[in-house]
Design brief:
By secondary structure, this protein is mainly β. The chain has one domain: 4-Layer Sandwich (Penicillin V Acylase, Chain A), CATH 3.60.60. 12% of the residues lie in helices and 39% in strands. It has three helices and 14 strands. The strands form two sheets. Strands 1, 2, 10, 11, 12, 13 and 14 form a seven-stranded antiparallel sheet that branches. Strands 3-4-5-6-7-8-9 form a seven-stranded antiparallel sheet, with helices on one face. It is globular. The protein starts with a strand and ends with a strand. This is Transport and Golgi organisation 2.
């Protein structure tokens, strides 16, 4: 994902979801009655999300899988709960969940006054505060090549049109350093299945999205307030 934040300005994001193509999900909406101010896409298998925005505060939280501990222990919470907790509670999300046994993750919190990441390797949680600017975060390992290749391009162009054009720069590739990906192994397909361009400020969320973000197939801008 790519985040651009400056104090006093809307937070702007590109959120790409890479997942098994067989895993069903719903387009962004207000899916969680217990979180009525949150908007995000819903994972139908676990009920959580990969990215959620709290409309009244303009806070967006997004989770990426990390490689250190790919499988959770039996009974551990799903990583899909983390964006809901992060968007709802901000930096206090940690008090609402036990990390024991969870699979590794990187949780990103993009707010009007801060950008924070929490990196969990299955045992230890590391918190990092990021200064104002444009940032790209990945799932780590070979995916870190994305930042080397693309962060300067995102930094130098405008959101949303310039960022959308970068995503549409080529079809999905079997390369973890590509912006959009497609890998096939043992009859399973892991690919970029969703993209969203988000602009969030307190009281207003604007978003366009696509299930094939490398094509000219993005939805019209949808606003929530």
């Amino acid at each position: 994902m790519v985040v651009r934040w400056t104090r006093g300005a809307p937070v702007r994001l590109l959120a790409l979801r890479d997942e098994l193509t067989s895993r069903e999900f719903d387009d962004p909406g207000r899916w969680w009655p217990e979180h009525p101010s949150l908007v995000g896409g819903r994972d139908r298998l676990a009920g959580g999300t990969w990215c959620a925005t709290r409309v009244d505060t303009g806070v967006t939280a997004l989770v990426l899988n990390r490689p250190q501990k790919p499988v959770a222990d039996p009974g551990a919470p799903s990583r899909g709960a983390l964006p809901l907790l992060g968007a709802e509670r901000g930096a206090d999300w940690r008090s609402a969940v036990r990390l024991d046994g969870m699979a590794s993750f990187l949780l990103v919190l993009a707010a009007p006054d801060r950008m924070t990441t929490w990196d969990f390797d299955g045992e230890r949680l590391v918190t990092t505060e990021h200064p104002e600017g444009t940032w790209m975060v990945t799932s780590g390992g070979p995916e870190d090549r994305k930042a080397d290749r693309f962060l300067p391009l995102f930094t130098d162009t405008g959101h949303p049109d310039g960022w959308r054009r970068l995503v549409q720069g080529g079809p999905p590739r079997d390369d973890p350093g590509a912006l959009t990906v497609r890998h096939e192994q043992d009859g399973l397909v892991f690919a970029t299945v969703f993209g969203a361009l988000i602009e969030a400020r307190p009281g207003r969320l604007r978003m366009e999205h696509s299930r094939r973000p490398w094509l000219d197939a993005w939805s019209p801008v949808v606003s929530w307030s």
